Amino acid sequence: MNPQKVLFFSFSTRFGGSERDTLRRAQFLSENAREVTYVTNNQDVYFELQQVPTIKAIFYETENKKLFKKEIKELINKTKYQFIHTCTVSFYFFTICMSLKNRMKSSFFFGGSSVSKVNLKRVIALNLVDRVIVNSSEAQRNIQKYIIFNLNKVKLVYNMIEAPKHIDTYINEYPHLKNKCVLGFCGGLNGHKGADLLCKVYSEFKKTNKLPTHLLIAGDGPMLTQIKNEIERLDLQNEVTLLGHISDISKFYNSIDLFLLSSRDEGMANVLFEAMSHQCKIVATRVNGVEFALNHGERGIIVESENISEMAKALDLALKTDFPLEETSKDILNLYSKEKFLVSSSELILCEEGLNFGHNGVDIVLS
């Protein structure tokens, strides 16, 4: 029997949570007897795809949507796919047209909180698609507003959080962290993540909090130089450490006591769940998904975005507050397990429930 053929594609200049989750789904199916092709215009996505030999990866270097669609059409004409899946919202209608013309089952992944630029084509696509995968109840409700029939095809699959892998920390490399309360940030150093606020918030926090503390910043991005200048301007050279891009997230979270999410907006902040799975205290700005993640303040402190004074006070309060860290970690690892994420997603993409993928597929780890 010939293997089922599945076509994945994403058109994006960023490599965010939606692209990463779509890649994980493609990898899981490819390693469980499905023939998977993944087309992308993103070099970072393509690099990750090349690490997965079971996926046929195609890189098409263009920011022109018409040219990219032409490439997809030609590929579909050459190969008879049974399934097509995308996480690119602006390609929903195109995906539906291709699926109807070529008799493919179709599915979307929607990783945002609300549908932007709603138009007739997008509403048609949402009503004709076989399945829509979302990662939050808020997104599920917002998508269902545009569905006339069969609301049940919009399925909630929580993001995948991997269990802490080890107990290593950065203390050996940075001995000045020893015996200090360490605050941490991990993410892109850009305005979207509120990276420009970090040093200002920490400096304000230090004015009233006299505990021996330190700030670890992990990540890279366009605001790196600005942050370095801010560290010098605020005389925080001995108070802040820039780690750059990190590959070992467990090592980072094991090194901190409190995680600060300073974002101005988010789709669904995976870093919150990662931090909670490592039993870190949380201070987070009120962006999409935070109320749900922190159970309306029971698991951490929620503050308004860009309010530096309020964020600084929240850091001080969080350090003095006892949160159910161990219980929260267990809940997160159960709800956001790799097995649930991969199996549920794959069943939705293949539009069939109760499939037997075998245990080997569940153990896949995306590097």
Structure description:
- With 367 residues, the chain is an alpha/beta fold.
- It folds into two domains: 5-160 and 337-362, 3-Layer(aba) Sandwich (Rossmann fold); 175-330, Glycogen Phosphorylase B (Rossmann fold, 3-Layer(aba) Sandwich), CATH 3.40.50.
- Helix content is 38%, strand content 17%.
- It contains 15 helices and 13 strands.
- It has helices at 17-30, 43-49, 65-78, 92-101, 120-128, 137-144, 198-208, 224-233, 249-254, 270-277, 290-293, 308-320, 325-335, 338-349, 359-362, and strands at 5-10, 35-40, 55-59, 83-86, 105-110, 131-134, 154-156, 181-186, 213-218, 240-244, 258-261, 281-285, 301-303.
- The strands form two sheets. It has a seven-stranded parallel beta sheet, with helices on both faces. The chain has a six-stranded parallel beta sheet with strand order 10-9-8-11-12-13, sandwiched between helices.
- Helix 4 links the parallel strand 4 (83-86) and strand 5.
- The longest helix is centred in the first third of the chain and has 14 residues, at 17-30.
- It is elongated, with a radius of gyration of 22 Å.
- The two termini are 31 Å apart.
Features:
alpha/beta, Rossmann fold, 15 helices, elongated
Write the layout of secondary structure elements.
Layout: E1 5-10, H1 17-30, E2 35-40, H2 43-49, E3 55-59, H3 65-78, E4 83-86, H4 92-101, E5 105-110, H5 120-128, E6 131-134, H6 137-144, E7 154-156, E8 181-186, H7 198-208, E9 213-218, H8 224-233, E10 240-244, H9 249-254, E11 258-261, H10 270-277, E12 281-285, H11 290-293, E13 301-303, H12 308-320, H13 325-335, H14 338-349, H15 359-362
Parallel strand pairs: 1-2, 1-4, 2-3, 4-5, 5-6, 6-7, 8-9, 8-11, 9-10, 11-12, 12-13
